# Entry
Amino acid sequence: MSDLQPVLLGLFGEVGSIMSTAKQLNREGEAFAGYRQAAVEEFGDALWYLAAICRRLKIDIDKVFLEAIQATRYEGTLVAGNTPDRPANIATHVKPISHLDSVLLRLGEATAALLTLNANPSNPKTVLLSFADCYLEALEAAGMTLGLIVEYNIAKTRGRFLVPAPNTLPTFDDEFEAEERIPEYFEMRMVQRKSGNTYIQWNGVFIGEPLTDNIRDEDGYRFHDVFHFAHASILHWSPTFRSLIKQKRKSNPKIDEAQDGGRAIVVEEGLTAWIFSRAKQLGFFAGRKSISFDMLKTIQQFVSGYEVEECPLKLWEDAILQGYEVFRNVRDNNGGTVIGDRKNRRVSYQLP
# Structure
């Protein structure tokens, strides 16, 4: 039971986030356009913590929800599921649903009761059933279903934690001619002159504009093109890199405008600057093997609407950690050669 307290507190925090999201909806109405996605996110995180609690208590979460569904206030209907041998049980309240605020208040009370499990675990199933009942009612009051939340959680967990099979990862320019594709292999030599300006040399030719840190206290941002090289190598995406080497997909005007154009470049540059500001606070990820889930979710929102949104969060984490490892080497040596291996989705460093 020693490891129960962290997940109990985690669930308590997620239920608080559900309430905060609902409060925003009530205050701003339709102006809070992101309500549905935000609510799905918070309900999903709460379900994740509930599952973790059930695992620690060795209680089957399926049975908890099934017993809650079989309570007198629900009417269950069996329908075809994803597999023939596992029909889905659709639960609907027989009685009218209370106002969302009242339902969420009861959900909060049920969550507070769960916090006593660590000190008094004698009858945990009763407390879990009470929470599951309130959770299902809150979902219905919010206009959502448990199936929606489960599907979202599965997709998010796979994208965040599972190492994807290489043949399942997206690539965005295989159907284009070589002159419009990101190169399978490239070497970018980064040089810092005495003036402090940095230059990029590709195939013996200097490309792009000389860069400085553009900040009072030097932090190495003059080498930030490393991150575009990492994006190109690992994500197979970088409108900035395509522009730099003049290999946009101009044969398809829609893709050229929407995916390789000025707005896409601004999105990548802005995202890169934002990650860099967070990375500075974390020692540029030195010694770290993971990126916070919150940061990865923000990245996902940042690139919504662009082709790279197809990339799983695990691949983004890989691109960031590899990119910052190379960045630290380039910064510490005031230059060097960055090697991009698109085929193997790797970026690496070589001394000048």
User: Anything to note?
Assistant: The chain has two domains: 4-161, 166-350. The chain is about 50% helix and 15% strand. The first strand starts at residue 74 and ends at 83.
